[in-house]
Amino acid sequence: MRTREDRREHLRQRVEYWSERLKAEPRIVRVQCMTRKWGSCSTSGIVTLADDLAGQDPEFQDFVIVHELLHLRVPSHGRLFKALMTAHVPGWRSLEVARRQYRDVSAAFEA
């Protein structure tokens, strides 16, 4: 079984891979405990990923990573953003549904 640091390093490597493909360089990449989201991207270039993302399917990991990295180039979820998501993660819409369902269920258990 991989250690927590191994899982975090795996996510950082996936970010590096996608950063090169998307030509989107985050200033800082954080992997930390997040209970309500899988990831976030700040306007200052900080990409934060949930540490438990490493335990999800690789396709889902890439979806979350691409989503956050694209926000470095396109801040909104408009047409351009959606077109880029489709170009890089063709099945992203079904993954989006799964993303919302999982964290919504998790948040309900926290209450």
Automatic annotation (TrEMBL):
It holds the Pfam family YgjP-like. It comes from the Bacteria. Residues 4-95 form the YgjP-like metallopeptidase domain. InterPro entries: UTP_pyrophosphatase-like (IPR053136), YgjP-like_metallopeptidase (IPR002725). PANTHER family: UNCHARACTERIZED PROTEIN YGJP, UTP PYROPHOSPHATASE. This is YgjP-like metallopeptidase domain-containing protein. It comes from Iodidimonas muriae.
